[in-house]
Amino acid sequence: MEQGWICGRARAAAGSRAYKLWVPLTLETEKASPLVMLLHGCTLDAREMARVSGMNEVADANRFLVVYPEQSRRANLLKCWNWFHPRHQARDRGEPSILAAIIEKVCSRFKVDSDRIYVAGVSAGGAMAVIAGATYPDLFAAIAVCAGGEFKAATSVSTGLAVMKYGGPDPFQQGKAAFEAMGPGLARKKKRRMPVIAFHGTADARVNPVNTEQIIAQWRVTNTCLAGQQGETDFAMSEETVAGQVPAGYTYKRRIYRDQTGELLMESWTVDGLGHAWPGSPEPHKYGDPKGPSAAQEIWRFFNEAGSKLRVSATPAQVVEPTSSETTA
């Protein structure tokens, strides 16, 4: 079986996108593997996102697949995911449908655990990760966001720019909107919670850190709605704050949210002094800062803990078996 980088392209009714899939040398091909989709920010591509995030190294150590979709300049001159446009904010439409097609394409080539497929992103990719998680809850088990925005935070380029500067709409309303958007996916696969981890730097001059506060507030509402749908009248969420510091790096505050049973549900990391960058990058980069906590490691730890437990039932993990003999994923 192929290892290292594999190039591919997936198509939906809304169009197609290229992607690059990282297959660790350590992958246990006889077992169903977790899969992380990581969405780059504006101007980046798959390989640069891999270098900025260090996610491939985490995948090598923990034996999971990472797929990096690539935005095209034809779709956006700056290669931003179009999170701010209504036609890219719904299931079976626009870019969310193309991202779902990429997941399906990877699953057609590799044995993937369908209960352990996750979506993450930074900046515009982070905002699109939120949309993907809300519109395809039957595909994605958890969400990670770095310097992104809440669900349907904007409806145009101008409102998108305003969101980046000032924050988005009322998280309560957006939380209910996200729950409504989850409906078709929940009809296919029930879900008790949507775990979310988010990161933001206090010195981010491009995307106001209030956006991450709104992400957590929005998903708090959405998760409350999910609990109500499951008849959990006793749903409650506790919050704990832990302070820390990276050796020779930034200080940070980690807010941990658990449900009434003690299960990890959400985390919010506020990194003091971090700009508009991926925290814990393996090397200095315009969009990556080594002095922050390793977002890649913390995302995987969170996905492994929270995203693998919050199912409706304790049924054995579903496995998506390969159905294609193609030489590219």
Q: Explain this structure to me?
A:
By secondary structure, this protein is an alpha/beta fold. It is built from 9 helices and 13 strands. It has helices at residues 46-53, 55-62, 94-109, 124-135, 157-166, 171-181, 183-188, 210-229, 295-305; strands spanning 4-12, 15-23, 33-39, 65-69, 112-122, 143-146, 196-201, 237-245, 251-259, 264-271, 278-279, 288-289, 319-320. The strands form 2 sheets. Strands 1, 2, 3, 4, 5, 6, 7, 8, 9, 10 and 13 form an 11-stranded mixed sheet that branches. A two-stranded parallel ribbon has the order 11-12. A hairpin with a 4-residue loop joins strand 9 and strand 10. The longest helix has 20 residues, at 210-229.
Structural features:
329 residues; alpha/beta; 9 helices; disordered C terminus
Structure summary, number of beta strands: 13
Briefly note the structural class of the backbone: alpha/beta
| CA distance, first residue to last residue | 11 Å
Q: What fraction of residues sit in β-strands?
A: 25-35%
Number of helices: 9
CATH class division: Alpha Beta
CATH topology: Rossmann fold
Mean pLDDT: 93
What is the element string, with H for helices and E for strands?
A: EEEHHEHEHEHHHEHEEEEEHE
For the record, what is the CATH homologous superfamily label?
Alpha/Beta hydrolase fold, catalytic domain
Instruction: Give a short account of the largest sheet.
Output: 11 strands, mixed
Shape: globular
Low-confidence stretches: 311-329
Please bin the fraction of helical residues. 25-40%
* Tally of structural domains: 1
Report Rg: 18 Å
Which second-level CATH architecture applies?
3-Layer(aba) Sandwich
